[in-house]
Fold:
Amino acid sequence: MSEIEEDVNREEFNRRIEEMFVSKKAPNTLLLSRSRYNTLIEQVKAAKLKTKKTPADYRRAKRYDVIKTTEGERLIMAAKPGQTTQQIFVTMDEIYDVVRVNHLKLIHGGRTRMMEFIKPMYKNVTAECVSVYLSMCKGCKNKSFKREKRLPITPDDNSELQEGASHNSDEDDTTELDPFKIGSSETLVVIPVQERQSNPISEETYPELYSRGQIDILAVTGEETEEYKYMLVYRDFISKFTHLRALKTTSIEESGDNLLDIFLVFGAPNILQSKNGTALTAPICKRITVLCPDIIILTSESNFRAQDLEGKTNEDILKKMNMWLSRNNKVKWQKGLKFVQHSLNTKFHATLCRTPSELVFGVDPRKGIASALPMDVCQALSSDTDLKRTLEKKENQNTEQIMSEESLILPCDFIKIEAMEDEEIE
Structure:
């Protein structure tokens, strides 16, 4: 275990956090055990489904929401009108990881700076939690350690960069689905991947280094009859947005033109990297600047990787393409790129507390009327006249439900009289 990992003892941190919350008698949603967290999720789900709600149900339904993520269901604060971000709740055993990751990303950053990153994303990770961690951090007490041990974005190790060098346990299942050959020496093309040393420069020291994108070119099929044989994968490390394009060749012109189309709409990063190396990125950046002098992009010898990207490896994307092809085996592979790209960018991201599409556009792509009504209702509609009838019927049902619920609430005057009578009885 490294010195960084031993900076703060997890068990001691959790013990101090629990003592702090108990002594302050903090709300029970600030310190959530795993069982309490799951119970609260079930209570919120039940409250939203009930037709006859208790006051507690009304509070839960109004205050909280439940979303599905790759790690299961998560509890979040309900969005307010005009709000684009939502805060997520974490369990007690997750507070340590949230604080530690942000502390190391900011190179032993202080409480104010850390809370700027944590507060927009996490509801129950408070400044007090950060203060407890900082008071226990050995690295913060040793200033020489703070200067020397800077933590860059985790680099790809050489074994992962050379995706075609070896086979893995999942390979046999995926290579049966043509036209992709996952793990083959043809997966990554253009330039052989060279071994790289990790870069000691820290992205956290200079925010400009955070703006980084990665382009890879993958060989998809060797069939002579196929017009498109290659796939361009571009990932933006800030927004976590992934772009997929089909290529006929591996020429710099075709790759650069496709990348420029993306940059003119979504914006260009400060730094462009590739598993193919600077032999690919340098001429592409030069071509983009020639075509559009307003855009200047630098290249990087180092190959830093965003650990939390959906489809973070090229193999992940190829597997998703295989799955799509297995369901649509009579369709050209390039037709599936837009569907795989959509699935990558509309999946909830725990770090962003939203999907990449929501971060870029403010909302996920609409699905027509299916975004407003249940699918079974939508399938029965064929015109705007049908839609109008359905909406009117829904409005009448909602009105009846509200009247029914209000009828269960005693008038305020009656409640006051009843309270006075109880006091007289006592």
Q: What stands out?
A: The chain has a mean pLDDT of 75. The radius of gyration is 27 Å. The chain is about 45% helix and 10% strand. The longest strand covers residues 212-219.
